[in-house]
Amino acid sequence: MLKRAAVVGLGGQATEDHLPGLADCQFAELVAVCDTDPARAATRAKTHAVPGYTDLKAMLEREQPDFVITAVPHHAGREVIETCAAAGVHVMKEKPFATGPEEAAELVELCARTGIELMVTVQRRFHPIYTAALQLLEQIGTPYLVEGRYTFHCPDPAAGWRGQAKLAGGGCLADMGYHLIDLLIWYLGLPDRVLAHTSACAMPGADYDAEDTALVHLAYDSGLYGSLLISRSAGPKAERLTVTGPRGAVVVERGAVRRLDPAGQMVESLIREPAWPSAAAAQIDCFCRVLDGTRVNPSGPNAHLAHAAFLAAAYASQVTSLPVDPKEFRA
């Protein structure tokens, strides 16, 4: 039997990823949509031929979904999770998991206490390019260098709630940068030290304090070191993570992964075309299997305590200009 799914928050993430993912997945069906904007809710409800709501509690009571996919502003995420947990409804949550380590720990406790499953939507873990990269890393020896870059040009990085650190829980590092941080932790584990520098200077004179650009230096006790450059103001659009070891390097991008020899010559590659559409559907189907008890949750609340700790350490380092150990922020 198909799982009943509802989508809460009908902005770009929902319309580009989650709604198409539901249309293409095997084990779930869309039964309702919800947004605080009545016009947006009505438009999406008509498009997808399902009921539209502006009140989450009313939707949960009337439609009784098995789970919701929520893609709301970061500061509103906790309330959605709490409302769903009170109704016994499971949650797929758009990243980030939480706006800080304290909230992350409290949400872990809430999910455990109420018995709901929660999966954070880090779609790269469900894309074959990124899982192939994990296998190729075994061929390069013990890594000693990691370099990441995720950049694109947003015409107005100061606009809306994303420009306000209090609402967003941070800027580009906590938002788009979450995907790069997730890859780093997935492939290499949580660093032992981070040193971060951030800026909100792309729009001179604009009133915003959530960083549009961040550079984070990384160090592991194993001798591995490197950096991540993240910007939502600096083009061209690029997404890349390179991990180097004594036997070569692995370079993973959105649609391709390459293994290089120590001189930088390509040994092998894998290209996926089209690069992206299947990831959202694969993640939804995985979550349905989690709810059926046939698969372990690969992106649950406990796994994302490390991400919250990384971000907290980076922002603390920005204030002090000193390296910070993320493990100091683990709940």
Automatic annotation (TrEMBL):
GFO/IDH/MocA-like oxidoreductase domain boundaries: 139-250
Annotated ranges, domain Gfo/Idh/MocA-like oxidoreductase N-terminal: 4-120
InterPro entries assigned to the protein according to its UniProt record, in alphabetical order: Gfo/Idh/MocA-like_OxRdtase_N (IPR000683), Gfo/Idh/MocA_oxidoreduct (IPR051317), GFO_IDH_MocA-like_dom (IPR055170), NAD(P)-bd_dom_sf (IPR036291)
Family annotation (PANTHER family): CONSERVED EXPRESSED OXIDOREDUCTASE (EUROFUNG) (PTHR43708), OXIDOREDUCTASE (PTHR43708:SF8)
Protein name, as recorded: Gfo/Idh/MocA family oxidoreductase
Organism: Streptomyces thermolineatus
